[in-house]
Predict the structure of glycogen phosphorylase.
Amino acid sequence: MKAIRRFTVRPVLPEPLRPLSDLARNLRWSWHAETRDLFQSVDPERWAASGGDPVRLLGSVRPARLAELAEDRRFLRRLTAVADDLNDYVSGDRWYQTQTTELPAAVAYFSPEFGITAALPQYSGGLGILAGDHLKAASDLGVPLIGVGLLYRHGYFRQTLSRDGWQQEHYPVLDPHELPVAPLREADGTPADICLALPGGKQLRARIWLAQVGRVPLLMLDSDVEENDLGERGVTDRLYGGGSEHRLLQEMLLGIGGVRAVRTYCRLTGHPEPEVFHTNEGHAGFLGLERIAELCSEGLDFDSALEAVRAGTVFTTHTPVPAGIDRFDRELVARHFGPDAELPRIDVGRVLQLGMETYPGGEPNLFNMAVMGLRLAQRANGVSLLHGKVSREMFSGLWPGFDPEEVPITSVTNGVHAPTWVAPEVFRLGARQIGAQRTEDAMTVGGSERWDAVADIPDQDIWELRRNLREQLVTEVRERLRASWRQRGAVTAELGWIDGVLDPDVLTIGFARRVPSYKRLTLMLRDRDRLMDLLLHAERPIQIVVAGKAHPADDGGKRLVQELVRFSDDPRVRHRLVFLPDYGMAMAQKLYPGCDIWLNNPLRPLEACGTSGMKAALNGCLNLSVLDGWWDEWFQPDFGWAIPTADGVGTDPDRRDDIEAAALYDLLEQRVTPRFYERGQEGLPDRWIEMVRQTLTLLGPKVLAGRMVREYVERLYAPAAHAHRTTDPDSAREIAEWKARLRAAWHGVTVDHVETTAATATAELGTTLGLRVRVALGDLGPDDVEVQAVSGRVDEEDRITDGTAVPLKPAGGPDPEGRWVYEGPLSLDRTGPYGYTVRVLPAHRLLASSAEPGLVALPSEEVVEAAGVLMR
């Protein structure tokens, strides 16, 4: 018989064990080994059965066992120590509290997904894991962050395989009462919720759930509440599911509802109000509209409110391709805003202006969430140096007249949260060397350029560690493979071969990630004979562990999964190549440490960052990757290999895959496998061990989420907080009125004449030219603009490729025609083809960059020809 209703019966903990409940409810246990060890000792079998989830463990442990522990003095001493440690962690000063510069009182961090722990499955891939690591690192550093997301009742999806290897999706229902979250409550004990207005007088209500991530509260909005109709209850049903309107409602709830949830949380707890709002990808972009509406209700006009909101907003883009951005039909967006729906006091036309692709090459009928995110944020960044460059080019249409390198999008390279991803065995090896506290500080706060203590670890210890981790992975793979084959319909009698799958002494390669086509899951299958030779080599074999999910709507990705699964089912190679379904955090935490090589072969430059290789590197795994994302930035031959790419213009995609697959096989045959199997005088692979050592010494400090969050604080949050404080209502009106005047008058700004005077007739290195420029400013004055000379080397088409901008100064007042003369020196500081130009840019003390308004005046063709702009 099936139950008509389900609910969770919680155990009543004996008084001495009450701290266990607090420990279970703070997700710090997910990266704190002592807390996990404590819970495991409660009941090792039930701990394993719960998947390492303390909330599930405490819900299943026998009352007799609890009574026994309540009398166990050794256990109670451990419990007190761990509880005291958590209290010190959440209440004591950390890195942020020791900074002398003025930092934000609080930062709100919005993301559509968060990967904190497998026990809270609210993530699909890299974006969510990155967001989870951002929260954890902020907690470790003491950054006063408030996370904001949605609580999906089905999460993403669980993946299994059919008998013929086709991906199948399952959506188990998640009961929040069985998750490590608690409802946020009003002072009278009723659940706190927020409400959005929908077209036709309907409402969308959402409950606020709180997950405590160390020091950081994570607010999660859940629309599955009784007050909603069936359709509205399903808004937060699953991550990245449904059609356009479903996605739009999710993103309105995340952005607009998220701001309301933050206000509610701060009101109820006394937490400082955020001075900075960080939008992690465009999904949460509507948060800026809600904040504009708040300021308008306090008396500001729309344009002034927009400037005030922009000042304190940071936008991070994660996609290098336009197809990865959410775009909605303008009529759909218009229907959900205005007098009959949400934000009724804001003109729908102003809402649409923020997201429309009104630039060359854009589709003017589409509302682009990333475009809105950029227009609502004064500071924006990509997630690696290369991705920053790609983003500047991709969004350059928003800043017409500027070269892509001047587009105001910077980059902060992603990092990963070491305590989450480093195997306990690796941590213990570091602790043996420098002590547990110093090891923990090195992995969380970071700050050092090198981990030199790694040099003192004996080769034998490093090699034993690597083999131990590989052996653990072999055991894990066999268990998961056996479970997968049973799900595919196999019986135990058919599965004896699984006991021989993988070998703890064979070079092990890992490949695990989402399965969009650009990540090229099946590139390794390009030449199956060569791959088979590598797998089955008599002296230097390799073995490969593969995992990954295709999006439920991506049949092309599912075909790639099926192609790889069918190859791995071949009895000739199935002991050497395995595909593990249902890739997630729990599997990843075993996979990264156990691999010797982490393989990454995307189409360059389509990998924004690619943090999986960072997690592997922190465990002493070497990277074998295309020079894309973070690997393009930090690759050195000392700690890995770069797969050559054929990403020139016009390369046929099939031919490109052939070329790059051949390069991959060559590297494995000629350089990677010989180094792994080659033995020195002590019987150890000395050169391989040295590469592991260099990976830990040089890459380790770079790839930390602690380093990443410190960069966000120093380079983005602190300036945004300063701008937020500076842009009070009067200043907001000032800058809004100035921009309106600027746009209205800019057509009158021209460069009319450029001339140079030289001390000598030849252009020699070290020569200084005198530059004299006449400009018309129309209705603007010298205080509204900056006139610059831009000079540097030029390419074959006379484009300045590495320009340096120098401001020129006005020489006296306007002439009778209203023209202004600007003068300044031009130093010829480089040899070779050299050129200069001049330009007029807007200037105001409240601008974050002169490119911000997207306006520039350049010399006309006639002026250029008269100026003689090139010297060779």
User: Anything to note?
Assistant: Residues 868-872 have pLDDT under 50 and may be disordered. The CA atoms of residues 120 and 188 lie 28 Å apart. The first strand starts at residue 107 and ends at 110. The radius of gyration is 29 Å.
